[in-house]
Write a structure and sequence with these properties.
heterodimer; A: 258 residues; mainly alpha; MetI-like fold; 11 helices; B: 273 residues
Chain lengths: 258, 273
């Protein structure tokens, strides 16, 4: 190891940053707590956020909107993943269909989620199905594109092997196609999941359909800064949890596929 | 070259084909499907989907679009949304690249702040819309701040990864060639980082458009986002659909312009997009 000191410092792009890197974030929060007056109308200190959340809890308007949002998010994400993967495989295995659908996909994909909301409201109304529809349409793309790319490059040799082994169609799909596609699918899911969460909350904010987004919007329109910050903090925690779960899922799938 | 003529060809259709061929070949079956869908929609809305009062057939959408153009609303709204998007995006790109190069090159800075960056960038940015409205009111400033905040992360992360991803071999060569610090940066680090960087910058542009629209829908009463909400509240399905397509085209066009600009001014990096 004595030579290691002379070797130029390793620069790995994928290096995991050390935890001490959280210091600036923590410092900002601590300074915020110490310096901001408790009744600051714009930037209430973090301790006030928790007090505000406690008040919401007391009024019964914390956990039920939270649960509503989570359920909507999970349903939409599951539909988006299945639909995205199915379309991705179908299109990826059929170059003709791929080419015909290309421009349409390309355009629908670029429409921002927000712009779809008024259309969905006009067609479906202010309901949970409307939220789910918007979330599905906007967050299935990462899964679809990743699966399509993987399906296109599906190893021909492996498929031939399956044929030589006289695997049935189902077995070929289960033992050859699925493992080959699963890691790309989950890679797409890793992008789709946070997206779906964000869009669920946006739709709730814009349309005032029940959920966390509505609560944040209400608090904002009533100038309850502490409640807004508290709910934003909750949203951020959910976001972090979704990221962690998605990353763990991706690791598990890579192991399964390998 | 003929960068002015952009044909909506799916970039994934022929990933290995040289860009020139891809640009020239018009995807006729794809365009035919678009036209067929437009016709089908017209027929469906006028027959099967009649029960839905709030659907607009294709001709109605086109008529509403013409009306909006004639009233002058649309041009002004497009101008506002595009201007705000571009300003926020440019500012974020500059800040993101400068910060990113610093964090990417300085090991100390990276170790002492990267974890914070990772946490902040993974926070759902939309949640900050109400905070921005609270602090800045229903204003352009609010919209700009939001766009800048959202765009910063992809640029910053892409720059850091690009800079840190420069292979040790390249850096060793630079050292062997006795390149100074500045020349190592200019001739080795930056060119190696640009492909990653461009991907981040392009992602930021798409996010900027999306955020501008949402900020306008929720907070700043101007631009396309406000237009579409206004049309929806007034139960004008034709206008809502017209706005939807306008917003989609604006987002698509900005992306196409960016890609065309890269092809024109930095053709050797065009392959990374």
């Amino acid at each position: 190891m004595s030579t290691a000191t002379r070797v130029p410092r390793r620069r790995s792009a994928a290096g995991i940053p050390p935890l001490r890197g959280l210091a600036p974030l923590v410092a900002v929060l601590v300074l915020w707590q110490l310096l901001a007056p408790a009744d600051d109308p714009y930037f209430p200190p973090p301790s006030r956020w928790f007090a505000a959340l406690g008040e919401l809890d007391g009024a019964g308007t914390l956990w039920s909107p939270l649960l509503t949002t989570l359920v909507t998010f999970v349903i939409a994400l599951v539909i988006a993943t299945l639909l995205g993967a199915a379309i991705g495989v179908a299109v990826g295995r059929a170059p003709g269909a791929d080419r015909v659908l290309g421009p349409t996909f390309e355009f629908v994909r670029t429409i921002p989620a927000g712009a779809l909301v008024p259309v969905a409201v006009l067609v479906i109304g202010y309901t949970r199905s409307m939220t789910i529809a918007v979330v599905v349409v906007t967050s299935l793309w990462p899964v679809l594109l990743a699966t399509r790319a993987a399906a296109r490059e599906l190893d021909v040799a492996r498929l031939e092997t399956a044929r030589v082994l006289h695997l049935s169609r189902l077995d070929t799909f289960r033992k050859v196609v699925l493992p080959s596609l699963s890691s790309s699918m989950v890679l797409g899911l890793q992008i789709s999941a946070p997206l779906a969460l964000i869009i669920t909350i946006v739709v709730e904010m814009i349309t005032q359909v029940d959920g966390l987004g509505k609560q944040i919007g209400l608090a904002q329109s009533q100038f309850q800064a502490a409640t807004v910050f508290g709910l934003v903090a909750v949203t951020c925690l959910i976001g972090l949890a979704v990221n962690i779960v998605a990353a763990a899922l991706a690791r598990a799938t890579r192991r399964y596929a390998a | 070259m003929s960068a002015g003529v952009q044909v909506p060809v799916a970039p994934g259709v022929a990933p290995d084909a040289p860009p020139r061929r891809r640009r020239r070949r018009v995807n006729l079956p794809g365009l035919a499907l678009v036209v067929a869908l437009a016709v089908l929609w017209e027929v469906l809305v006028r027959t099967v989907l009649r029960a839905f009062d709030n659907l607009a057939p294709t001709t109605e959408i086109i008529r509403s679009f013409g009306e909006l153009v004639a009233r002058g609303d649309l041009a002004a709204q497009i101008g506002h949304t595009v201007a705000v998007t571009l300003i926020g995006w440019v500012v974020s790109t500059v800040v993101g690249v400068v910060l990113g190069v610093w964090l990417g090159l300085s090991g100390v800075a990276w170790r002492w702040s990267m974890a914070s960056v990772e946490v902040l960038r993974s926070l759902p940015s939309i949640a900050f819309v109400p905070v921005a409205i609270l602090v800045f009111g229903f204003s352009e400033q609010m919209e700009l701040v939001l766009i800048m905040y959202v765009c910063l992360w992809p640029v910053l992360i892409a720059t850091i990864e690009g800079v840190r991803g420069v292979g040790p071999g390249l850096l060793d060569s630079a050292r062997t060639l006795n390149l100074g610090r500045l020349r190592t940066w200019r001739c080795v680090v930056l060119p190696a980082a640009v492909p990653r960087l461009l991907v981040g910058v392009r992602l930021a542009l798409a996010l900027a458009v999306a955020l501008a629209v949402i900020a306008e829908m929720l907070g700043n009463p101007a631009g396309l986002g406000f237009g579409i909400v206004f049309a929806q509240r007034g139960f004008q399905p034709g206008q809502v659909f017209a706005y939807l397509f306008t917003i989609g085209i604006v987002g698509w066009a900005l992306n196409a312009l960016f890609t065309a600009a890269v092809r024109m001014f930095a053709p050797r990096f065009a392959g990374s997009l």
